[in-house]
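May I ask you to comment on the folded chain given beneath this request?
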Amino acid sequence: MSTSQQPDPRDRPARLTVGVVGAGRVGPALAASLQLAGHRPVAVSGVSDASRRRAEDLLPGVPLVPPAEVLARSELVLLTVPDDALPGLVEGLAETGAVRPGQLLVHTSGRYGAKVLDPALRAGALPLALHPAMTFTGTPVDVQRLAGCSFGVTAPEELRLAAEALVIEMGGEPEWIAEERRPLYHAALALGANHLVTLVAQAMELLREAGVAAPDRMLGPLLGAALDNALRSGDAALTGPVARGDAGTVAAHVTELRRHAPQTVAGYLAMARATADRALAHGLLKPELAEDLLGVLATGTDGAEGEAR
Protein backbone atom coordinates (compact mmCIF):
# COMPACT_ATOMS: atom_id res chain seq x y z
CA MET A 1 0.00 0.00 0.00
CA SER A 2 1.31 3.43 -0.90
CA THR A 3 2.56 5.58 1.97
CA SER A 4 3.34 8.67 -0.06
CA GLN A 5 3.58 11.78 2.07
CA GLN A 6 1.52 14.91 1.59
CA PRO A 7 3.56 17.82 0.27
CA ASP A 8 4.83 20.28 2.85
CA PRO A 9 3.11 23.68 2.36
CA ARG A 10 6.50 25.31 2.73
CA ASP A 11 7.59 23.59 -0.49
CA ARG A 12 4.89 25.31 -2.55
CA PRO A 13 5.81 28.29 -4.73
CA ALA A 14 5.09 31.42 -2.70
CA ARG A 15 2.12 33.27 -4.08
CA LEU A 16 2.41 36.55 -2.13
CA THR A 17 5.16 38.24 -0.20
CA VAL A 18 3.83 39.19 3.23
CA GLY A 19 4.83 42.03 5.51
CA VAL A 20 3.76 42.87 9.06
CA VAL A 21 3.54 46.40 10.44
CA GLY A 22 3.26 46.04 14.21
CA ALA A 23 4.72 42.87 15.70
CA GLY A 24 2.24 42.61 18.56
CA ARG A 25 0.54 39.39 19.48
CA VAL A 26 -1.59 39.17 16.32
CA GLY A 27 0.53 40.06 13.30
CA PRO A 28 3.32 37.47 13.55
CA ALA A 29 0.79 34.70 14.20
CA LEU A 30 -1.24 35.58 11.11
CA ALA A 31 1.89 35.86 8.99
CA ALA A 32 3.09 32.47 10.26
CA SER A 33 -0.28 31.01 9.35
CA LEU A 34 -0.10 32.48 5.86
CA GLN A 35 3.39 31.01 5.53
CA LEU A 36 1.94 27.55 6.19
CA ALA A 37 -0.46 28.21 3.32
CA GLY A 38 2.38 28.90 0.92
CA HIS A 39 2.90 32.65 1.19
CA ARG A 40 6.29 34.14 2.11
CA PRO A 41 6.80 36.58 4.99
CA VAL A 42 9.57 38.98 3.97
CA ALA A 43 9.56 41.87 6.44
CA VAL A 44 8.24 42.86 9.84
CA SER A 45 8.38 46.05 11.91
CA GLY A 46 8.44 46.24 15.68
CA VAL A 47 9.60 48.74 18.26
CA SER A 48 9.63 47.11 21.69
CA ASP A 49 11.94 44.30 22.76
CA ALA A 50 8.88 42.09 23.30
CA SER A 51 7.63 42.64 19.77
CA ARG A 52 11.04 41.87 18.33
CA ARG A 53 11.20 38.63 20.31
CA ARG A 54 7.75 37.64 19.10
CA ALA A 55 8.76 38.27 15.50
CA GLU A 56 11.87 36.16 15.90
CA ASP A 57 9.96 33.31 17.57
CA LEU A 58 7.13 33.14 15.04
CA LEU A 59 8.92 34.40 11.92
CA PRO A 60 12.53 33.30 12.31
CA GLY A 61 14.87 34.83 9.79
CA VAL A 62 12.41 37.50 8.63
CA PRO A 63 14.18 40.88 8.82
CA LEU A 64 13.01 43.67 11.10
CA VAL A 65 12.74 46.91 9.13
CA PRO A 66 10.87 50.26 9.36
CA PRO A 67 7.19 50.28 8.33
CA ALA A 68 7.83 52.00 4.99
CA GLU A 69 10.34 49.30 4.09
CA VAL A 70 7.81 46.60 5.02
CA LEU A 71 5.45 48.04 2.43
CA ALA A 72 8.22 48.34 -0.15
CA ARG A 73 8.98 44.63 0.11
CA SER A 74 5.46 43.21 0.41
CA GLU A 75 2.52 42.47 -1.84
CA LEU A 76 0.29 41.73 1.17
CA VAL A 77 0.71 43.94 4.24
CA LEU A 78 -0.80 43.16 7.64
CA LEU A 79 -1.40 46.31 9.70
CA THR A 80 -1.61 44.90 13.21
CA VAL A 81 -1.33 47.95 15.43
CA PRO A 82 -3.67 49.10 18.26
CA ASP A 83 -7.05 50.45 17.13
CA ASP A 84 -6.33 54.04 18.13
CA ALA A 85 -3.05 54.05 16.18
CA LEU A 86 -4.49 52.65 12.96
CA PRO A 87 -6.00 55.78 11.31
CA GLY A 88 -2.82 57.81 11.79
CA LEU A 89 -0.64 54.98 10.53
CA VAL A 90 -2.70 54.58 7.36
CA GLU A 91 -2.70 58.32 6.67
CA GLY A 92 1.04 58.57 7.25
CA LEU A 93 1.87 55.65 4.97
CA ALA A 94 -0.34 57.05 2.21
CA GLU A 95 1.01 60.60 2.52
CA THR A 96 4.64 59.47 2.32
CA GLY A 97 4.03 57.41 -0.82
CA ALA A 98 4.73 54.09 0.88
CA VAL A 99 1.51 52.55 -0.44
CA ARG A 100 1.70 50.99 -3.91
CA PRO A 101 -1.14 50.49 -6.41
CA GLY A 102 -2.46 46.94 -6.32
CA GLN A 103 -1.00 46.22 -2.87
CA LEU A 104 -3.25 44.26 -0.52
CA LEU A 105 -3.53 46.19 2.73
CA VAL A 106 -5.12 44.23 5.58
CA HIS A 107 -5.87 45.54 9.04
CA THR A 108 -6.99 43.35 11.95
CA SER A 109 -8.87 45.89 14.07
CA GLY A 110 -12.26 44.78 15.29
CA ARG A 111 -13.50 48.34 15.65
CA TYR A 112 -12.91 49.51 12.09
CA GLY A 113 -14.18 48.30 8.75
CA ALA A 114 -12.56 49.03 5.41
CA LYS A 115 -13.20 52.80 5.36
CA VAL A 116 -10.31 53.47 7.74
CA LEU A 117 -8.10 52.38 4.81
CA ASP A 118 -9.56 55.02 2.46
CA PRO A 119 -6.29 57.03 2.31
CA ALA A 120 -4.52 53.89 1.08
CA LEU A 121 -7.40 53.10 -1.28
CA ARG A 122 -6.93 56.50 -2.91
CA ALA A 123 -3.29 55.57 -3.39
CA GLY A 124 -4.34 52.43 -5.25
CA ALA A 125 -4.20 49.84 -2.47
CA LEU A 126 -6.75 47.06 -2.06
CA PRO A 127 -8.31 47.44 1.44
CA LEU A 128 -9.38 44.49 3.60
CA ALA A 129 -10.54 44.35 7.24
CA LEU A 130 -9.94 40.85 8.67
CA HIS A 131 -10.45 40.63 12.42
CA PRO A 132 -9.80 37.26 14.09
CA ALA A 133 -12.31 36.68 16.89
CA MET A 134 -9.65 35.14 19.09
CA THR A 135 -7.50 36.10 22.06
CA PHE A 136 -3.77 35.92 21.34
CA THR A 137 -0.82 35.01 23.57
CA GLY A 138 2.04 36.02 21.29
CA THR A 139 3.32 32.43 21.17
CA PRO A 140 3.23 29.66 18.52
CA VAL A 141 0.05 28.22 20.07
CA ASP A 142 -1.83 31.11 18.43
CA VAL A 143 -1.24 29.64 14.98
CA GLN A 144 -2.95 26.41 16.04
CA ARG A 145 -5.87 28.31 17.58
CA LEU A 146 -6.65 29.97 14.27
CA ALA A 147 -8.04 26.65 13.02
CA GLY A 148 -11.79 27.16 12.99
CA CYS A 149 -11.53 30.72 14.32
CA SER A 150 -14.17 33.13 13.02
CA PHE A 151 -12.94 36.30 11.31
CA GLY A 152 -15.02 39.46 11.02
CA VAL A 153 -14.59 40.35 7.32
CA THR A 154 -15.31 43.77 5.79
CA ALA A 155 -14.15 44.79 2.32
CA PRO A 156 -15.40 46.30 -0.92
CA GLU A 157 -17.71 43.87 -2.69
CA GLU A 158 -15.20 43.30 -5.49
CA LEU A 159 -12.62 42.12 -2.93
CA ARG A 160 -14.94 39.94 -0.92
CA LEU A 161 -13.75 36.68 -2.45
CA ALA A 162 -10.10 37.63 -1.94
CA ALA A 163 -10.75 38.50 1.70
CA GLU A 164 -12.59 35.28 2.38
CA ALA A 165 -9.90 33.24 0.62
CA LEU A 166 -7.18 34.68 2.86
CA VAL A 167 -9.20 33.85 5.97
CA ILE A 168 -9.73 30.28 4.79
CA GLU A 169 -6.01 29.93 4.05
CA MET A 170 -5.30 30.91 7.67
CA GLY A 171 -7.63 28.15 8.81
CA GLY A 172 -10.40 30.54 9.77
CA GLU A 173 -14.10 30.91 9.01
CA PRO A 174 -15.10 34.20 7.32
CA GLU A 175 -18.11 36.07 8.74
CA TRP A 176 -19.19 39.11 6.74
CA ILE A 177 -19.71 42.26 8.88
CA ALA A 178 -21.23 45.38 7.32
CA GLU A 179 -19.11 48.53 7.63
CA GLU A 180 -21.62 50.33 9.86
CA ARG A 181 -21.93 47.32 12.18
CA ARG A 182 -18.24 47.00 13.03
CA PRO A 183 -18.38 48.95 16.34
CA LEU A 184 -21.37 46.89 17.53
CA TYR A 185 -19.65 43.66 16.45
CA HIS A 186 -16.52 44.63 18.34
CA ALA A 187 -18.45 45.67 21.44
CA ALA A 188 -20.11 42.25 21.52
CA LEU A 189 -16.76 40.47 21.42
CA ALA A 190 -15.25 42.73 24.08
CA LEU A 191 -18.27 42.17 26.34
CA GLY A 192 -17.99 38.42 26.00
CA ALA A 193 -14.23 37.84 26.00
CA ASN A 194 -12.49 40.75 27.73
CA HIS A 195 -14.99 41.00 30.58
CA LEU A 196 -14.92 37.24 30.99
CA VAL A 197 -11.22 37.42 31.87
CA THR A 198 -11.95 40.05 34.52
CA LEU A 199 -14.78 38.00 36.02
CA VAL A 200 -12.72 34.81 36.13
CA ALA A 201 -9.72 36.59 37.67
CA GLN A 202 -11.95 38.12 40.36
CA ALA A 203 -13.58 34.76 41.08
CA MET A 204 -10.15 33.12 41.54
CA GLU A 205 -9.06 35.88 43.93
CA LEU A 206 -12.20 35.45 46.04
CA LEU A 207 -11.78 31.68 46.17
CA ARG A 208 -8.20 32.11 47.38
CA GLU A 209 -9.49 34.48 50.06
CA ALA A 210 -12.03 31.80 51.01
CA GLY A 211 -9.22 29.28 51.47
CA VAL A 212 -9.41 27.33 48.22
CA ALA A 213 -5.93 26.08 47.36
CA ALA A 214 -6.50 25.55 43.62
CA PRO A 215 -9.21 27.93 42.42
CA ASP A 216 -8.38 27.29 38.77
CA ARG A 217 -9.05 23.57 39.22
CA MET A 218 -12.32 24.30 40.98
CA LEU A 219 -13.54 26.83 38.42
CA GLY A 220 -12.45 24.97 35.29
CA PRO A 221 -15.25 22.37 35.11
CA LEU A 222 -17.88 24.84 36.38
CA LEU A 223 -17.03 27.60 33.93
CA GLY A 224 -16.58 25.15 31.06
CA ALA A 225 -20.07 23.76 31.66
CA ALA A 226 -21.56 27.25 32.07
CA LEU A 227 -20.02 28.42 28.80
CA ASP A 228 -21.15 25.32 26.93
CA ASN A 229 -24.68 25.64 28.32
CA ALA A 230 -24.84 29.34 27.46
CA LEU A 231 -23.68 28.79 23.88
CA ARG A 232 -26.19 25.98 23.45
CA SER A 233 -29.19 27.41 25.28
CA GLY A 234 -28.70 31.16 25.77
CA ASP A 235 -30.75 32.62 28.64
CA ALA A 236 -32.29 29.22 29.39
CA ALA A 237 -28.91 28.30 30.90
CA LEU A 238 -29.20 30.91 33.67
CA THR A 239 -28.90 29.39 37.15
CA GLY A 240 -27.93 30.59 40.61
CA PRO A 241 -29.43 32.79 43.32
CA VAL A 242 -30.28 35.73 41.06
CA ALA A 243 -32.21 33.62 38.54
CA ARG A 244 -33.98 31.87 41.46
CA GLY A 245 -34.84 35.14 43.20
CA ASP A 246 -32.91 34.32 46.40
CA ALA A 247 -32.68 37.91 47.65
CA GLY A 248 -31.27 36.93 51.04
CA THR A 249 -28.41 34.97 49.49
CA VAL A 250 -27.55 37.83 47.15
CA ALA A 251 -27.57 40.26 50.10
CA ALA A 252 -25.19 37.97 52.00
CA HIS A 253 -22.90 37.89 48.96
CA VAL A 254 -22.78 41.68 48.84
CA THR A 255 -22.01 41.90 52.57
CA GLU A 256 -19.09 39.49 52.21
CA LEU A 257 -17.78 41.25 49.14
CA ARG A 258 -17.87 44.62 50.91
CA ARG A 259 -15.89 43.09 53.77
CA HIS A 260 -13.27 41.17 51.80
CA ALA A 261 -13.17 42.62 48.27
CA PRO A 262 -14.96 45.97 48.04
CA GLN A 263 -13.54 46.58 44.56
CA THR A 264 -15.75 43.77 43.24
CA VAL A 265 -19.09 45.04 44.61
CA ALA A 266 -19.96 47.38 41.75
CA GLY A 267 -19.31 44.68 39.15
CA TYR A 268 -21.26 42.05 41.09
CA LEU A 269 -24.29 44.33 41.44
CA ALA A 270 -24.18 45.38 37.78
CA MET A 271 -23.99 41.80 36.52
CA ALA A 272 -26.66 40.66 38.98
CA ARG A 273 -29.03 43.38 37.77
CA ALA A 274 -28.43 42.40 34.15
CA THR A 275 -28.96 38.73 35.04
CA ALA A 276 -32.18 39.53 36.91
CA ASP A 277 -33.52 41.51 33.96
CA ARG A 278 -32.82 38.66 31.54
CA ALA A 279 -34.17 35.99 33.90
CA LEU A 280 -37.36 38.00 34.43
CA ALA A 281 -37.84 38.67 30.72
CA HIS A 282 -37.47 34.96 29.91
CA GLY A 283 -39.78 33.72 32.65
CA LEU A 284 -37.05 32.17 34.79
CA LEU A 285 -37.36 34.62 37.68
CA LYS A 286 -40.81 34.67 39.28
CA PRO A 287 -42.28 38.19 39.41
CA GLU A 288 -43.27 37.79 43.06
CA LEU A 289 -39.60 37.18 43.95
CA ALA A 290 -38.20 39.84 41.67
CA GLU A 291 -39.29 42.80 43.81
CA ASP A 292 -37.25 41.83 46.87
CA LEU A 293 -34.28 40.86 44.72
CA LEU A 294 -34.28 44.11 42.77
CA GLY A 295 -34.56 45.98 46.05
CA VAL A 296 -31.41 44.29 47.32
CA LEU A 297 -29.60 45.09 44.09
CA ALA A 298 -30.70 48.72 44.24
CA THR A 299 -29.37 49.24 47.77
CA GLY A 300 -26.79 46.52 48.15
CA THR A 301 -28.51 45.28 51.33
CA ASP A 302 -31.69 43.52 52.42
CA GLY A 303 -32.43 46.08 55.11
CA ALA A 304 -31.08 43.82 57.83
CA GLU A 305 -27.37 44.65 57.58
CA GLY A 306 -27.02 42.25 54.67
CA GLU A 307 -27.70 39.08 56.70
CA ALA A 308 -29.18 36.19 54.77
CA ARG A 309 -32.82 35.53 55.54
